[in-house]
Specification:
- The protein is an alpha+beta fold and about 325 residues long.
- The protein folds into two domains: about 1-225, no CATH class; about 225-315, Kinase associated domain 1, KA1 (TATA-Binding Protein, 2-Layer Sandwich), CATH 3.30.310.
- The protein has helices at about 1-40, 85-90, 125, 130-135, 185-200, 205-210, 240-255, 300-315; strands at about 45-50, 55-65, 75-85, 95-110, 140-155, 165-180, 230-235, 255-260, 265-270, 270-280, 285-295, 295-300.
- The chain has a six-stranded mixed sheet.
- Strand 1 and strand 2 (about 55-65) form a beta hairpin.
């Protein structure tokens, strides 16, 4: 009898786990499809879990890729989304989140050869005028407290030629917002806030944000950039390969003025003096530091852009 009871209990537990996994898989698929339809860009989610009793949702590895007409790549990479929802409100067809935490790991801003920004070509941006003419009925939404973390912004400009001008902004700030009342406000914050923090222009994005009731005055480069003129990263690479790749990138992006096998390469990129320092850590591990200054002023976006292209070649 005890053995049968154990077997039945095990089968119940397995069934519950299987149902939970299937439920999460189905909801994740629905979210992916809906997000793709709303934005007009492919969306992928690595992980999703829904807690009914604790009323929490966790999403990991949310990626939205570039829309049609732009090079392949990630537009938005959110490493994690954690929310606490009100089940009672949801049953009444109202989305009420008492708290939401969003960590934006990286955002890719691309200007194509026609001078168009990828963020402006998202379906949600292009439909704003249609929404004004004929408002669509949406589920009421309320987020009491939103914590938004902004990591890195990679900006690529293809408008001046085949090779893009690449800048990288290590924003690394966290901001808190209260009383978010629409999907439009949430989307505008996620897309517009990183651009505003880095001082990147995008009139259409800011216009949509204003229509959604979000303050959009660009404030220039974030305070965290002040005084910092370098970008640094470790790589699993031999010293020789890292040196050759760094030299090739600097030659392609600008002009090399001095190089030596000691691991220091000096040059000019966009009018800024750039110094690349390659330090051997172990046999197959190096640390690369890129600094950039123009008229004695730090240019971290240039340094970050050079290091980004080096990293792409060392992958």
């Amino acid at each position: 009898m005890k053995k049968k009871t154990l077997i039945v209990s095990a089968m119940v537990v397995v069934s519950i786990l299987a149902a939970a996994i299937l439920r999460d898989f189905m909801i994740k698929s629905v979210i992916t499809v809906v997000a793709t339809q709303v934005t007009g860009a492919p969306v992928h989610i690595d992980g999703f879990s829904l807690g009914v009793f604790n009323q929490k949702v966790r999403i990991s590895g949310f990626k939205m890729y570039n829309p049609k007409g732009f090079p392949r790549g990630t537009l938005v990479h959110i490493s994690k989304i954690n929310v606490t929802y009100d089940l009672g409100a949801l049953l009444k067809k109202k989305l009420h989140l008492s708290s939401a935490e969003i960590e934006l790991k990286e955002m890719g801003i691309i200007k194509n050869s026609e001078g168009k920004l990828n963020v402006n070509e998202l379906k949600v941006m292009k439909q704003e005028e249609k929404k004004k003419a004929k408002p669509s009925k949406q589920m009421p939404m309320q987020i009491d407290l939103l914590k938004l973390g902004i990591g890195k912004i990679v900006s690529k400009d293809y408008s001046s030629g085949k090779e893009p001008v690449v800048y990288v902004y290590d924003v690394n700030i966290h901001k808190t917002y209260k009383n978010i009342t629409s999907v439009q406000q949430l989307a505008a914050l996620i897309i517009m806030e990183p651009m505003k923090a880095a001082g990147i222009e995008g009139a259409q994005v800011y216009g949509v944000a204003m229509a959604a009731g979000v303050a959009v005055l660009p404030v220039g480069i974030a305070v965290t950039f002040a005084g910092k003129d370098y970008a640094r990263q470790e790589f699993a690479s031999s010293f020789e390969k890292a040196y050759d790749v760094s030299l090739a990138v600097l030659k392609r992006k600008g002009k090399v003025t001095e190089d030596n096998l000691a691991g220091i390469i000096t040059g000019v990129v966009d009018g800024a003096k750039v110094i690349i320092r390659i330090k051997k850590k172990t046999v197959n591990k190096v640390e690369i530091t890129v600094s950039a200054r123009k008229f004695m002023l730090p240019k971290p976006k240039i340094a970050g852009g050079v290091l980004y292209e080096i990293a792409e070649k060392l992958k």
